[in-house]
Design brief:
The complex is a heterodimer of chains A (about 260) and B (about 50).
Chain A (H helix, E strand, L loop, with lengths): L1 H5 L13 H24 L13 H28 L2 H32 L9 H20 L5 H28 L19 H62 L1
Helix pairs in contact in A: 2-7, 3-4, 3-6, 3-7, 4-5, 4-7, 5-6
Chain B lengths: L3 H30 L18
Classes of the chains: A mainly alpha (about 260), B mainly alpha (about 50).
Chain lengths: ~260, ~50
């Protein structure tokens, strides 16, 4: 990732946060998304039990997996910030949290649509996975809220890092909830992917979707990282301008005083 | 195709949100890049970065 983020290092005013790498990632992601729609709707066969509702799997499952990836990055970045005060990793953590919140929001949304078709309800408070996923989403929204507070950026980063780690601690609970609470009344089934119940073109399309959304997420992470980096540069520039102006003001005041004393 | 309406809403909203978020990233990047002084336009080499 470091290499991807450091090639084409000069930022062009027109390109903003884009580079040759992100351009090609974007092209592959876009073409992949179009191909995925074709595969998902016209090539993959309907399921024996779920019929066409199974097509939600191609969008819901990759979103859920990439939510884990994004929030894991946030957790790694948070540890690196708390331990080493690494601005680079803190920037990665912040960007990954924003992208992860988007993916987890879409996981909840696509899950509720799929649930409406297969379970007959958009939401069930008794389903542990639904509730723990919502808690994870809200924790990470809290992370972003703390990052947006005014005040000392380092203090905000530290507070957010702690929240990021609390969110990460919730991820194994989300992932294992269908096993740990299997005796409870729960709508979510155990993973069909791990159990080998998905095969053929359905499995191929699901893997294809995972690759496409991974490319799109990588594109987003690189752009988001660069945005945070630019924001830091802008705020440092603003701070140094403000300091220069303040010094000039103070110097002018002292000069005036000297003149008056004469 | 069964449940086409739900499928279209699920896929459409998801791809739409991803598309809009991607566009917002590009726009934010362009706006910010125009405010960064020339000597600070390298990704990994600011003096304040502890590496």
């Amino acid at each position: 990732m470091t290499k991807l983020m450091t090639d084409d290092t000069i930022i062009d005013r027109q390109r903003g946060t884009g580079s040759r790498t992100t351009f090609w990632l974007g092209v592959v992601g876009l073409v992949g998304a179009i191909a995925l729609v074709f595969l998902g709707f016209f090539v993959a066969p309907p399921d024996d039990f779920q019929k066409d509702a199974v097509r939600m799997i191609f969008i819901h499952v990759p979103m859920a997996i990439l939510t884990y990836v994004a929030f894991s990055l946030t957790a790694i970045g948070s540890v690196a910030w708390l331990w080493k005060r690494s601005i680079w990793w803190d920037t990665v953590a912040h960007g990954a949290a924003e992208v992860g919140v988007m993916f987890s929001g879409l996981t909840l949304f696509t899950g509720s649509i799929w649930g409406r078709i297969t379970w007959g309800t958009y939401w069930d408070w008794g389903d542990v996975r639904l509730v723990t996923t919502l808690i994870l989403f809200l924790i990470m929204v809290g992370y972003l809220a703390v990052r947006s507070f005014d005040g000392d950026e380092a203090v905000n980063a530290t507070r957010a890092a702690v929240i990021g780690l609390i969110g990460a601690a919730n991820m194994p609970v989300v992932n294992r909830s269908v096993t740990w609470w299997s005796s409870r009344r729960t709508l979510h089934q155990k993973s069909s992917l791990v159990n080998g119940k998905i095969e053929g073109l359905t499995l191929f399309t699901l893997m294809f979707a995972l690759v496409v959304f991974s490319i799109i997420m990588l594109w987003m992470l690189i752009h988001r990282f660069r945005i945070s980096w630019l924001e830091r540069q802008v705020s440092e520039g603003d701070l140094s301008e403000a300091l220069t102006a303040r010094r000039a003001e103070a110097r002018a005041g002292m000069d005036r005083e000297t003149e008056e004393n004469k | 195709m069964t449940d086409l309406g739900y499928l279209l809403v699920g896929w459409g909203v998801s791809l739409g949100v991803i598309g809009l978020y991607s566009l917002s990233l590009v726009r934010r990047g362009r706006t910010l890049a125009s405010r960064v002084p020339a000597d600070r336009r390298r990704w990994m080499t600011t003096e304040s970065d502890p590496k």
